[in-house]
Amino acid sequence: METPQDYTKRILGNIGERDPWAQLEATPKRLRALTTAASAKELAFSPSRDRWSTAQILAHLSDAEVVAAWRLRSILARDGIELQAFDQNAWASTFQYERADAAESLALFEVLRSANLRLLRTVDPALHQNAGMHQERGRESVVHLVRLYAGHDLNHLGQIERLLAEARNAPHGRPDF
């Protein structure tokens, strides 16, 4: 089982030395490019019951951006604030990601990402050093979160690329278990 610290290390490893701001800006366009030509069947394809489809990943990304919006605003307004953990599997189940509309999820993600980037560019840059105390991962500054969200983007972009390629090569979509 991956620990919160292992997760952070893995996700930050995705961004490496790349510019996280450029990645955050590029992700919405890349998601749109990947999914625009995909059929509903391809967006719903999952190779197994325990793996998310592209549509489910898009629902997750839009919810993760809601969480990011709250965390960033909380930290910017109050240095040292406690940050609640986010159980992505509970959200996926509760909010029925398997029924999510991919286009709606992507549209929400795009709006939220734009608003979050605009916020980060307009606040006093000194506030980017503010940090929150995440319940599982400890101290996380705005600078750190920018890198973490960029790595998270790359993680899911890679998953979507693989899923869509697999869906296009699958003879009848999702296997029947």
Structure description:
The chain is mainly alpha-helical. It has one domain (26-169): Four Helix Bundle (Hemerythrin (Met), subunit A) (Up-down Bundle). Helices cover 64% and strands 6% of the residues. It is built from seven helices and three strands. It has a three-stranded mixed β-sheet. Helix 1 (4-15) crosses helix 7 (142-169), helix 2 packs parallel to helix 7 and helix 4 (54-77) runs parallel beside helix 6. The longest helix is centred in the C-terminal third of the chain and has 28 residues, at 142-169. The radius of gyration is 17 Å and the shape is globular. Mean pLDDT is 95; it is low at 173-177.
Blueprint (SSEs and pairs):
Blueprint: H1 4-15, H2 20-36, H3 40-44, H4 54-77, E1 82-83, H5 88-94, H6 102-122, E2 131-134, E3 138-141, H7 142-169
Parallel strand pairs: 1-2
Antiparallel strand pairs: 2-3
